[in-house]
Write a structure and sequence with these properties.
9 strands, TATA-Binding Protein, four-stranded antiparallel β-sheet, 2 domains, alpha+beta, 38% helix, five-stranded antiparallel β-sheet, globular
C-alpha cells in the first residue's frame, strides 16, 4: 500500500527544491550563522547540529543518527527562506502574541505550546533545569526555572516555568526577541517553540503531555 505524504512533508520537499535555486553566498550573508563545511551548510537548532546538503538540498543531522523531524526541517527551511538581510536582535523580549502578525495564532499557541509546556514539566522542574543546561541554556533570574535557549543563533527564546503548588497548577511562558519575525515567518515561530518543547522533553526523558503542535 502506498504511504500518504503529509502536507508538511510536501512543504519540506517544496522548500528543498527552492533551496537548490538559491545563491548560497547570498544566503550566507542573510543568515551569518551558516557555516560551509564540505558538502554542507551547517547550523545548530536547539544545540543539535544539522547540515543542508549544497547539491541535494536535504537536511541531515550531523552528530547523531536520530531521524530529523519535519518540524526541524520546516524551521530550518523557513529560516533560510524568510530571513531579512541585516536583521538583528533587539533585546526587547515579548510573549508570542506581541510578535508582528501573531495575534490570530495566539489561542492555538497557548493550547498547543504553552499549556503543553506546563503540563509536561509539572512536578519535573529539576529535570527541566537539567535539560536546559544540557541544551546549553543561559540561566535567567526569574521564574522557578528560566533559561534562554538558542533555537537558532539568530533566534533565542526564553523558556519560563513556575512549579505547581497547593493553590496553583504549573504555569509556563515563552518569550521571543521582538526581531523573531524578521528572521522567520510568523507561523514558523510557533513550530520553533514547539520544537523547543520537544527537545527539552526528549532531553529530560519525559513524554510531552497535552494537545501539542508538532509537524
Amino acid at each position: 500500500m502506498e504511504s500518504k505524504v503529509s502536507n508538511y512533508e510536501k512543504a519540506c520537499i517544496q522548500w528543498q527544491e527552492k533551496f537548490l535555486q538559491w545563491d548560497l553566498e547570498e544566503l550566507r550573508k542573510k543568515v551569518p550563522e551558516l557555516k560551509e563545511e564540505g558538502e554542507y551548510l551547517t547550523l545548530y537548532h536547539y544545540a543539535r547540529k544539522y547540515g543542508i546538503h549544497k547539491k541535494k538540498g536535504t537536511i541531515e543531522a550531523l552528530e547523531d543518527s536520530d531521524p530529523v523531524s519535519n518540524t526541524t526541517k520546516f524551521n530550518i527551511y523557513t529560516l533560510l527562506g524568510f530571513a531579512t538581510p541585516g536583521a538583528a536582535l533587539t533585546n526587547d523580549w515579548v510573549p508570542f502574541e506581541q510578535l508582528k502578525n501573531a495575534r490570530p495564532f495566539g489561542p492555538a499557541f497557548q493550547r498547543g505550546v504553552i499549556r503543553a509546556f506546563a503540563l509536561t514539566f509539572a512536578g519535573h522542574g529539576k529535570e527541566l533545569e537539567e535539560a536546559c543546561i544540557r541544551l546549553k541554556g543561559q540561566k535567567l533570574r526569574y521564574a522557578d526555572v528560566g533559561y534562554q535557549l538558542d533555537a537558532f543563533a539568530c533566534m533565542p527564546l526564553r523558556f519560563l516555568f513556575w512549579e505547581e503548588d497547593e493553590e496553583f497548577d504549573a504555569q509556563a511562558n515563552i518569550l521571543y526577541d521582538r526581531s523573531a519575525t524578521d528572521f522567520i515567518h510568523v507561523e514558523s515561530t510557533v513550530s520553533v517553540a514547539s520544537e523547543g518543547l520537544y527537545r527539552l522533553a526528549q532531553t529530560a526523558g519525559i513524554p510531552v503531555k497535552g494537545s501539542t503542535f508538532q509537524l
